[in-house]
Amino acid sequence: MNKSSPEGYKASEIRMMFFIWRETRHNERGVTVSGLSEVMEVTSPTVTPLIRGMEKKELVFRYNDQEDRRVVRVKLTEKGEEVTRAAMEKYSSRFKGLCEHLGAEKVEQLTELLDQVYHYLEELLIQDSHKS
Fold first, then answer.
1. Structural domain range at position 92
2. How far is it, in rounded angstroms, from Cα 35 to Cα 83?
C-alpha cells in the first residue's frame, strides 16, 4: 500500500482519507475524531496527530459540531477529495490489473479463499470476546 499511495502522501493519510470520505457519505456533517479512531481501530491520541499533519497539508479541516460544541468533526477539503479520488483510481486500476493478470478462474478462487479467511478470523474474534 505504501508504494501505491499517491506521491507525497503516507499510506496512513490515504487510509484516513478513505475513512473520512466513506463516513462523510453517511453523515454530511463529517466524522468525529472518536468515530475515526473507532473505525480505524486505534485510540484517539493516535488519530489526533495524524489529523493535525493532514490539516497542515490542507487535506482535512476540523470544526466544532453546531449541535454539540464539545464534539470535533473532520471533513475532507477540496484538495483532500482530489487526493482521495486519485488514490481510489490508482487502487482500482491496480486491482483491475491484478484480476486481468490472474484470470477469471483464479480470481474466483482467491475470492473464495479470502471469504474463508474472513469468516475464520471473524470466528476467532467472537471466541476471544466470549473469553473476556
1. 2-101
2. 22
